[in-house]
Every structure is written in structure tokens, then in C-alpha cells.
Write a structure and sequence with these properties.
Layout: E1 14-19, H1 20-30, H2 45-61, E2 65-69, H3 77-81, H4 99-109, E3 114-115, H5 122-135, E4 139-143, E5 157-162, E6 169-172, H6 174-181, H7 188-195, E7 196-197, E8 202-203, H8 210-220, H9 223-228, H10 235-243, H11 245-255, H12 277-287, H13 291-298, E9 319-322, H14 328-335, E10 347-356, E11 359-368, E12 373-377, H15 384-395, E13 401-403, H16 406-415, E14 423-426, H17 427-434, H18 443-451, H19 478-503, H20 507-527, E15 529-531, H21 533-558, H22 567-577, E16 585-586, E17 589-590, H23 594-603, H24 608-630, E18 637-638, E19 641-643, E20 653-655, H25 667-673, E21 676-677, E22 684-690, H26 693-702, H27 705-712, H28 717-726, H29 735-749, H30 754-761, H31 765-778, H32 780-796, E23 798-800, E24 806-808, H33 817-854, E25 859-864, E26 867-872, H34 877-889, E27 900-905
Parallel strand pairs: 1-2, 1-4, 2-3, 4-5, 9-12, 10-13, 13-14
Antiparallel strand pairs: 5-6, 7-8, 10-11, 11-12, 15-18, 15-21, 16-17, 19-20, 22-26, 22-27, 23-24, 25-26
Length: about 900
């Protein structure tokens, strides 16, 4: 039994009880699993959604006591009476189970107990705690999607029942329950007994719905009284009731929630505890959650348990000056001279503004120096002397500066007509090298984590106002003071993160590759690439027409209209109307995703699955082209944004639009690339990419001599490897043999399993396993290298590229098999893909420097994985091609040569090779 130990605050207590699995499942199905996951493959949608719902509950309800009840996997006392209890439930999605312990860990870290009891369900735990809270005079709130909880509703106990969205929770008090179901809360289990519960496999009375059941209970007062008068119930419903009375009475017994579960806790044990901020930070970092959720969580939990700030971080106070017109030049002269700003003590620079699409805007700017002085200024209020002094300070390459988001600053300042030289640190880039698995590097989070410092919030919408005497208007300084404090934070963070980067062996990677690459990427974004808008609009119309034709054909096949975008209607058409084979069972029926439709197309002669796939393809292509059209700027060019701190492997990514995601191996993808053309004043586009770079890196890292010899043989690489594996002459290797070896080689570089290889090649797992064995028999050094990579990473916790870029993989030692195996595949892939990313970045730096040094007017426009796209000025094709080939092939000295393929043409498509 639960003991009810009194506390001084009992009379004011508000107890919030959460049904763990109910809320987690709701979160899982509300948020798409494919959009919430870590780089190691851990799904996070349930954890994220659960945390979001919890934040809302804590904020809106302000509970003093909280607990989460969880179901256990074993049988309960209800199974002892009814062995089929809950049989027939849909199979739990494989992405869900691993998220439960992560959610429970989050609850523990914020001081919320996780409670369960063998032989009982979460509902019983909640019912017991609700009784304890009620007897102690506490107000009780129950967050659950299980209607059985309605029987617990009283004037002091309310169920918060999910509505249509995660944020929608309906308050089910006694009046709401009676209005909704026509019975009082104590009689809800009587109604449920009559109607049955499909989810629990509790059959009700056939033909009896909630309205009929409620009418009977209202007339007779209770199920017991109804049974006493059962012969008075006429018609078919009455006969069905008599025929299924045993089921009804069993349902009523099973529906009754236990209120005496022995949990070993009392109400005072449920007092909302202290939050382990360091633990939450570590968990959210591992889950790669954005800082916004963390901020919302910290706003509603008890932070008394947070770690004390690091004393050294607060050693220098910030002496803030909000510079009015005519005051900045004097401040810079006094505080930011060469004596004040040195390599050992760079100034901190912070910009408030917006940037993207190759441009930006500066709304506010602040500078902080080592002495503790800091200044904030509104660029719109600078006079000529101030402007000249600031431009000189920013552009001086000998004046060391630390900044947060270097490229954004370059774009915003560049739009203002200012340059930025002397940058020795980007705190976002440095943090990325320290924690490459994290997705965002917000200054507020970094300060809290590395400085133990909370940054004050900027005053929303507050603009600097000056009175007639040039003084600061009352109450207008909050925003500007906050900007100056941020510059000081950047200044302090730069030193701390430099030490962290150095500790991880990444100092050269930061100073020699990542930082120098930022101005190069900024120039790429400013330049953009010319687009043929008319051609894109033509493609858009073509894809839209093809999608409409697919809709019409689908309607013809079925003989009626239906919504091709509705999974529910597709299930009806495919599995009920047409009787096609059932696909994988999911919570809402049977899946109709692309894999399922592809399988159906192979299993059946019916044309519809193929038509549905074609419709989806054409719709996706139309959407892609529409997105490209929207991003064509007034200059007729598309200015994408390159991201350096997103991919854990070190690869660049492209957004708004994503130009790295346009397929090159399909006819349709090549047609889209035809829309990217050479710009006015230039002669053609040149594309240069590395040939088989991942395999060349694998040969280098594994030191497998047979693999190295295959690259140096002069023959087609995959044919040469096929000859060795299959024991034939090179000219006897068939196209199928070559394709198998190619898939094998690339698959190994990406951690492909025998099963994955079988699926890719369309062969049996046994054939795939034999192919892998034959491959490793010939190239044993590759096998030994791959095994050693995983074991070394498991030992030290990370992998490394040829330039020392580390990727940390804590899941290598996880107890969860799915997470561990995913981390092992990442450990295989990271050194190879990461080394390829390192090499193309070095190549970009060398090509850019060589173009500048040669005085060429040609310029690099894009980097797409292993490819550079260059816009060639008239008369420079031969010289630039030679320059690009030389610089790319010499980017790194591998044990095999870096082969570079080059093509040219008036469009990106024509330049393919």
C-alpha cells in the first residue's frame, strides 16, 4: 500500500500524473519519425513530443507534485482472468521502444519519478496515486489518452484528455464526462463494459453503442441494477445483452482500476524535484535537439540543482557603452587599438541581423575587448567618422577578432559595404568541431555549457532612441546592453573553445581548413548560379500535367474518384476494393508508403500501385521545381546557403534550396540540372569531380596492396576488382559482375550488411554473404581495417579522418542493439566520408587561392559533394581546367592518385562527364 505521509504544503498541493506510454505513443504518431532522429539513427520523435507536452503541462497547470506511470512488458492481473486481454494490438513500430528509456531518463533528470509495478498497468499506478492525492486534499490532474481514467474523475480530479494536436488537451471534469458520454464518471466503466474496448480486446454487446449503453445506465442507475432488470430490455439489443452478459461482467471487472498498488512512495516523494541541468544538456546534445526546446523546458522546471557558474568565466566584468552618434570612433581609438586587441586576446564581435541567399542586413553590432570594455551601436546612427573608424576596425587583417557565425557576419557586413578581416575564431565552428553530432550551436547554449553563464534576454522590438541632447532615452538601452554582453560572451567563449578544440586535436582543422573556407563559401553564396526560369516553369507544368494524368488513370482503374494523397482512402482502395495483398500492419491499418507500393507492384498484375508511385514521383518533382522557381532572385540567379556545421561527417550541406539533392543519375534529375546555366558575361560552366574518392580513401586507410594495385593497373577499377574476386581475366568480367563488385565496394565504405547488399542487388542473403566472403578473401586488408576501425572507436569513443576530424559515437557501447549497430555503421563510414569531405574542402581552398593568384575572372559557384562547379570567363577555359585539375588532384597525398574528371557546357547538365 502507498503510505500517505503529510507535508506542510499538502493543502496547496497540485498533483500531475502522466500516463507515460499513452503520452509517448501520442507523441510518436503526432511527429514524423523520419524528421526526428540523430545522425546515428536513433529516432527521437516520441521523446521530443513527450517533452513538448510536458513543458506545456508544467507551464499551464503549475503542479507542485508530478509523477509518470509506465506500463511494464509482463502480464498483469487482468491476464490471469482473461488470457486474451489486449491481444490483437498492432505491432509496436520498431522506432518506438528505444525511446522509452530515453524519455524516462529525461524525467529522472528533471526530478520527476518514473513509477510502475509488476502485474499492474500504468492506469492502476495512476489510480492509486490519485486516491492518495485526493485523500490528502490535493488537486489531481491526470494526463492520459486512456478513457478508463474517466472513472477517476471527481470534483478534485480532472483528466486532461488529448484532442487533435499535441497541444490540445481537453479538461474532462465530472460535467464534461457526463456531457460527452451521458453517464457520471463512476459509471463510465459500466458504459465501457457494455460497449467494449477494441484496443484491449474486450468485446462488447453487438449492436450496442455508447448512446444505447448510456440510456440503459441512466434509466437503471448502474450496470448492477441493469442486470437485475435485464429481462425488461426488449428487442435485438436486449437479446444480445443477455447472450453476452458474461463478457460484459468480465469487462466491468477488468475495467476497474486498482487503487491499492504498493508503490513504496508517498505524496511528498512526488514533489517536483531539482533539475540536473548538466545531465539534461548532455542528453539533449546526444539527441541533437534544438536549443528552443531546452529553453522552454528550463523556463518551467526547478533549476535549483543546476551546476554553479564557472568562476573563471565571470572574472572580467563587462563595462558597457551604448554609443550614440559621433561616439564610436573615440571608443574604438581608446579601447580597440593594436595594444588592446592581440592574437592572445582577440576582440569579441556580435552582430544582430539577418542573412541568407548571399546577402544580409546588420541591425545592431557590438564589440568587446579583453579589458572588459564593450560597446554596442546602431549602424543607422553612425556618422561619417564613426563609419570610417568601424569599417577600418572590421577590415583590418592584423586586428584579431572572434565572431559567432562568421559567414553570416560576412554576408550582412558585405551588404552594408564593409569587409571583415582578422577573424581568428568562429565560436559556432569551434563548437561544431568539439561536438560534431550536435545540430545547432546557439550562443546562449554555448555560454551556459562552457562558461556557466546565462545571457540576458534582448528586449523584444526595442530600438535605440536618443533624446534631443544626444543622450540615451529612458528604458531604451536593454537591447543594446544585451548585444554588448553577447560580444563579451563571444570573446570569452573563443578562448575556452580553442582549448577544447586543441584537446581534440582539431586546431589545424579549424585554423587551416574550416575558418579559411568561410570567406570562400560566402563568395559562392553571393555569386549564386544562373537559372533558366522559363525552362523551370515549363518543367513545372509538365510535372503537374503528369501528376494530373496519373490521378485520372488511377480513378479509371478503380472506377471511382478517391484522394491519392489519403492513406486511409488508399487502404480502402488497395486492400478492400481491389483485394491486393496486405502490406505491413501499422497503427492506422496497413502501410501504403513507397516501399509497400513497390512491393505491391511486384506482387500483383494490377496497374494501380505503379500509377500511385508515378503520381508521387511527379508530384515530388513538381514541388522541387516550384521550390527552385521561388528562389530565383532578381538577378536571375539562385543563391543557395552552404552549411558547415550540420553534417557530423564534415560534409557541407545546402539549403534554400538544396542543390546537393538534385539527382544526377536519373533522366529527370539531369533535366532539372539543365535549368542551371552559364551566366551573362561568362562562357560556360565547368564541372570537376573526384572519381571513386571513397574507394581511393579506403585503399589508402586500409593499405590493402591488392586494392592499391587495382587502382594503379590502368584498367577499369571495378572490372579489375571483379577479375580478382571471380578469378577471371579483366575482359571476361560481365556487366553484372562489375555491378555487383561496385555495389560491394561502395557498400563496405558505407557499412553495408550482407542483408543490405542482398536487397540492393536483388539476390539472396546467402549469395550476398558468399560475395562478401569472396571479396574479403581477395582483399583481406579491407576486412581487417573495417574491424579495427570499429574496435578502436569503441575503445576511444570516436573515429578520425585523415585530417584529424573526430566523430564521437557514444552509442558504440549502448545496451540497445539497434543504436549500437547503427553507431557501428557510422564508425565504418565516418573516416571515409569525412576524409572525402576534408579533401574537397582543401581542394576548394586551393582552387580559390589559385584563381585569385592567377588573376582569372572565372569563379567557383557550387560544391556538390565531390564536385565543384566553376563559371568560366571568356578565353579562360583551358587555363582554368588545368588549374582545377592540378589543385584538386594535389589536395592530399594518398597512396593512390586522386583522379579528377572534368566536363564543360552551357548548362550544368551539358557540363556532366
Amino acid at each position: 500500500m502507498v503510505t500517505n505521509r503529510e507535508t506542510p504544503e499538502t493543502s496547496k498541493a497540485r498533483l500531475l500524473l502522466l500516463d507515460g506510454h499513452s503520452m509517448a505513443f501520442r507523441a510518436f504518431f503526432a511527429l514524423p519519425a523520419e524528421k526526428f532522429g540523430t545522425s546515428t539513427g536513433q529516432s527521437t520523435n516520441a521523446v521530443y513530443g513527450f517533452a513538448s507536452m510536458l513543458v506545456k503541462l508544467l507551464r499551464d497547470e503549475e503542479p507542485t507534485h508530478v509523477a509518470v506511470a509506465w506500463d511494464l512488458s509482463g502480464p498483469t492481473f487482468r491476464h490471469e482472468e482473461y488470457a486474451e486481454y489486449k491481444d490483437g494490438r498492432s505491432e509496436t513500430p520498431p522506432e518506438f521502444p528505444s525511446q522509452v528509456p530515453l524519455t524516462q531518463e529525461l524525467m529522472r533528470l528533471i526530478g520527476v519519478p518514473n513509477l510502475s509495478s509488476p502485474g499492474f498497468e500504468a492506469d492502476d499506478v495512476i489510480a492509486t496515486l490519485a486516491r492518495v492525492g485526493g485523500e490528502a486534499g490535493a488537486e489531481v490532474l491526470i494526463a492520459s489518452g486512456d478513457r478508463d481514467a474517466f472513472q477517476l474523475v471527481t470534483e478534485s480530479c480532472t483528466v486532461l484528455y488529448p484532442g487533435k494536436s499535441l497541444s490540445d488537451l481537453r479538461r474532462m471534469d465530472p460535467a464534461a464526462v457526463e456531457e460527452k458520454y451521458g453517464v457520471t464518471p463512476p459509471r463510465y466503466r459500466d458504459l465501457a463494459a457494455l460497449v467494449g474496448e477494441k484496443a484491449d480486446n474486450l468485446p462488447g454487446v453487438p449492436g450496442v453503442g455508447p448512446k444505447t449503453a448510456a440510456k440503459w445506465i441512466a434509466k437503471y442507475g448502474s450496470l448492477e441494477s441493469l442486470v437485475e432488470h435485464i429481462d425488461e430490455i426488449g428487442g435485438k439489443a436486449g437479446q444480445n445483452l443477455r447472450d453476452h452478459l458474461d463478457d460484459v461482467l468480465r469487462n466491468q471487472r477488468l475495467n476497474l482500476l486498482a487503487t491499492d498498488v504498493d508503490l513504496g512512495v508517498g505524496l511528498d516523494d512526488l514533489l517536483l524535484g531539482r533539475t540536473d541541468r548538466a545531465g539534461v544538456d548532455a542528453l539533449f546534445d546526444n539527441l541533437e535537439f534544438a536549443s528552443s526546446l531546452r529553453e522552454r523546458l528550463y523556463a518551467v522546471v526547478n533549476l535549483d540543482g543546476a551546476e554553479a557558474p564557472v568562476p573563471a568565466a565571470e572574472a572580467v566584468e563587462v563595462d558597457v557603452t551604448v554609443a550614440g552618434t559621433g561616439e564610436l570612433a573615440a571608443w574604438l581609438a581608446e579601447h580597440a587599438s593594436a595594444d588592446d586587441v592581440t592574437a592572445a586576446a582577440p576582440a569579441g564581435l556580435f552582430l544582430d541581423g539577418v542573412w541568407g541567399a548571399g546577402t544580409g542586413r546588420v541591425d545592431g553590432l557590438s564589440v568587446a575587448v579583453a579589458s572588459g570594455a564593450a560597446v554596442a551601436v546602431d549602424p543607422a546612427r553612425l556618422d561619417a567618422a564613426d563609419t570610417e573608424a568601424l569599417a577600418g576596425f572590421l577590415a583590418d587583417p592584423e586586428r584579431p577578432v572572434a565572431v559567432h557565425e562568421y559567414k553570416g557576419a560576412l554576408l550582412a557586413l558585405g551588404a552594408q559595404g564593409w569587409d571583415l578581416g582578422g577573424v581568428v575564431s568562429d565560436t559556432a565552428l569551434a563548437a561544431y568541431l568539439v561536438q560534431p553530432g550536435q545540430r545547432r550551436f546557439d550562443l546562449v547554449d554555448l555560454c551556459r555549457k562552457y562558461l556557466g553563464r546565462e545571457l540576458e534576454e534582448e528586449s523584444s522590438g526595442d530600438q535605440l532612441a536618443l533624446d534631443l541632447d544626444g543622450g540615451e532615452a529612458e528604458g531604451a538601452s536593454g537591447r543594446w546592453h544585451a548585444l554588448a554582453v553577447r560580444a563579451a560572451a563571444v570573446r570569452d567563449l573563443a578562448g575556452v573553445l580553442a582549448a577544447e578544440v586543441d584537446k581534440r586535436g582539431g586546431a589545424h582543422l579549424l585554423s587551416g581548413v574550416e575558418l579559411p573556407l568561410v570567406p570562400v563559401l560566402a563568395r559562392l553564396e553571393r555569386a549564386g548560379i544562373a537559372a533558366d526560369r522559363a525552362y523551370l516553369e515549363e518543367l513545372q507544368g509538365e510535372f503537374a500535367s503528369a501528376a494530373r494524368a496519373a490521378v485520372e488513370r488511377a480513378h479509371e482503374i478503380v472506377g471511382r474518384e478517391f484522394n491519392l494523397g489519403s492513406p486511409k482512402q488508399l487502404q480502402q482502395v488497395l486492400f478492400e476494393d481491389l483485394g491486393l495483398p496486405r502490406t505491413k500492419k501499422i497503427k492506422t491499418g496497413y502501410t501504403t508508403d513507397a516501399d509497400a507500393l513497390t512491393w505491391l507492384a511486384a506482387q500483383s498484375d494490377n496497374e494501380l500501385p505503379g500509377v500511385l508511385l508515378h503520381h508521387r514521383d511527379q508530384t515530388k518533382l513538381r514541388t522541387t521545381v516550384e521550390g527552385l522557381i521561388k528562389t530565383v532572385a532578381d538577378d536571375g540567379r539562385i543563391h543557395t546557403t552552404f552549411n558547415q556545421t550540420v553534417a557530423a561527417t564534415g560534409r557541407l550541406s545546402s539549403t534554400d534550396p538544396n542543390l546537393q539533392n538534385i539527382p544526377v543519375r536519373t533522366d529527370v534529375g539531369r533535366r532539372i540540372r539543365r535549368a542551371f546555366v552559364v551566366g551573362e558575361g561568362y562562357q560556360e560552366l565547368l564541372t570537376a569531380d573526384y572519381s571513386q574518392i571513397e574507394l581511393r580513401i579506403m585503399a589508402h586507410l586500409s593499405q590493402e596492396q591488392a586494392l592499391i594495385d587495382a587502382f594503379n593497373s590502368g584498367y577499369d577499377f571495378h572490372a579489375q576488382m571483379g577479375a580478382q574476386v571471380f578469378g577471371r581475366a579483366v575482359d571476361e568480367v560481365t556487366g553484372e559482375d562489375r555491378s555487383r563488385i561496385k555495389a560491394m565496394s561502395y557498400g563496405l565504405a558505407y557499412g553495408l550488411s550482407a542483408y543490405g547488399l542482398s536487397q540492393q542487388l536483388g539476390i539472396s542473403p546467402e549469395e550476398a554473404k558468399k560475395l562478401m566472403e569472396d571479396y574479403f578473401a581477395e582483399f583481406g586488408g579491407v576486412r581487417d581495417y573495417l574491424n579495427a576501425v570499429v574496435e578502436e572507436a569503441r575503445k576511444v569513443g570516436y573515429t578520425e579522418t585523415i585530417l584529424g576530424r573526430r566523430r564521437y559515437l557514444p552509442d558504440l557501447t549502448s545496451d540497445n542493439r539497434q543504436r549500437r549497430e547503427m553507431a557501428e555503421r557510422m564508425a565504418l563510414n565516418a573516416p571515409i566520408q569525412g576524409s572525402a569531405a576534408d579533401i574537397i574542402k582543401v581542394a576548394m581552398l586551393q582552387v580559390d587561392a589559385a584563381l585569385t593568384e592567377s588573376g582569372a575572372a572565372s569563379r567557383v559557384l557550387l560544391q556538390v559533394h565531390d564536385e565543384l562547379v566553376v563559371e568560366i570567363a571568356p578565353g579562360e577555359r583551358e587555363a582554368v581546367e588545368n588549374l582545377v585539375r592540378h589543385e584538386m588532384s594535389s589536395a592530399y597525398d594518398l597512396r593512390v592518385p586522386l583522379a579528377v574528371s572534368v566536363g564543360g557546357g552551357r548548362s550544368w547538365h551539358d557540363a556532366a562527364h
